[in-house]
Amino acid sequence: MASIPIPDCTCILCIYYKCTVTFSNNSSNKSNILFSRCISATMATNTRTPVALVTGGGSGIGRATAVRFAELGYSCVVADIDEPSAKETLRMLKTPGIAVQVDVTMATSVEAMVTAAVQHFGRIDCAFNGAGILGASGRIVESPEDAFDRVMGVNAKGVWLCLKYEIAQMLQQEPVMSEPARWADKPDVCRFRGVRGSIVSASSQAGLAPFKYHSPYCASKWAVLGLTKTAAVEYAKEGIRVNAVCPGLTATPMGDQLREQSPPDLQGLVDPKNHPVGRQAAPEEVAEAVCWLCSDACPFTTGEHLKIAGGL
Ligand SMILES: NC(=O)c1ccc[n+]([C@@H]2O[C@H](COP(=O)([O-])OP(=O)(O)OC[C@H]3O[C@@H](n4cnc5c(N)ncnc54)[C@H](O)[C@@H]3O)[C@@H](O)[C@H]2O)c1
């Protein structure tokens, strides 16, 4: 146990951990006793309701994710540029929540969203950056310059801004563990399971492969993976996990838009019948994966992307 680095952190878990290491130099029995006290102490501090923030929470995958977080017992901050739709999602939740209007392309707006979340709930345990737009379809030569800026603005810069302000908040938070007893016999895991926060962003299957007629969207979703993997390594040691999901065709307003505006030679690709599973995803199936990645079930998973594309 002495090989585990002594943390600088002053949270109750780390203070007890430091005591453990100090005492273990003299008496291994005492160290075991103190570690079990550390675990109980952490459990005692961790009975509060966790808090999840969801952008794009007014529709589709974001709405399904907010609903699933609430089913799992999280308080929810439902954020969307379309405030009425965010409020509609709020009415579906079983736990306390707030609806916040946000434009993820604007730093001041994203900062205000994070401030509102912290003012209401004290911290942000998990965030899903789901806000996104598809943009018009067309080959590169025919596509207007402002279409590129708009799609990149929401999907790539929007995720960067959300990461920036969410991580800044999480860095100020004490690490917590939701199920410390489960790891009681693994003190090293116990020590590093304490997380300040966990973030998942929406990339896409189009972030892993070419996406004909949607070059700005495709570029923006590859960018989300670059941001995810970079943020993950920058903040891994501070106990902040950052991951992404890459959904395939999903039954949401954006999924409908994609099918409607796709040129004939793309219709085969977007026809759910041609997918290995033979259907498109339900938004709830993506939401489940988001909540799992955010949860304590995968403490060693960071900088990853999870494809949810029915075998494609
Ligand atoms: N539906 C699919 O097939 C699919 C597949 C892969 C990835 N995705 C991604 O998943 C995410 C959610 O998609 P969806 O299908 O639920 O789409 P959706 O259109 O149903 O929902 C997107 C939400 O984002 C909000 N939004 C748009 N611009 C915003 C802005 N500037 N600030 C704040 N909110 C804004 C919209 O108001 C809307 O509520 C998106 O990032 C999308 O690119 C979707």
Primary descriptors:
binds nicotinamide-adenine-dinucleotide; oxidoreductase; 12% strand; 7 strands; 312 residues; alpha/beta; Rossmann fold; seven-stranded parallel sheet; 11 helices; disordered N terminus
SSE order, one letter for each helix or strand: HHEHEHEHEHHEHEHHHE
Total helices: the number is: 11
Write out the strand line-up for the largest beta sheet, numbering strands in chain order: 3-2-1-4-5-6-7
Overall form: globular
* Unreliable stretches covering 5 or more consecutive residues: 1-45
Task: Report Rg.
Answer: 21 Å
Q: By CATH's scheme, which homologous superfamily of the largest domain applies?
A: NAD(P)-binding Rossmann-like Domain
The major pleated sheet works out as: 7 strands, parallel
What is the CATH class designation of the largest domain? Alpha Beta
Q: What is the helical fraction, as a range of percent?
A: 40-55%
The secondary structure category is alpha/beta
Question: How many domains would you count in the coordinates?
Answer: 2
Number of strands: 7
Approximately how much beta-strand content do the residues carry? 5-15%
| CATH architectural arrangement of the largest domain | 3-Layer(aba) Sandwich
- What's the pLDDT, averaged over the residues? 85
CA-to-CA gap between the ends?
45 Å
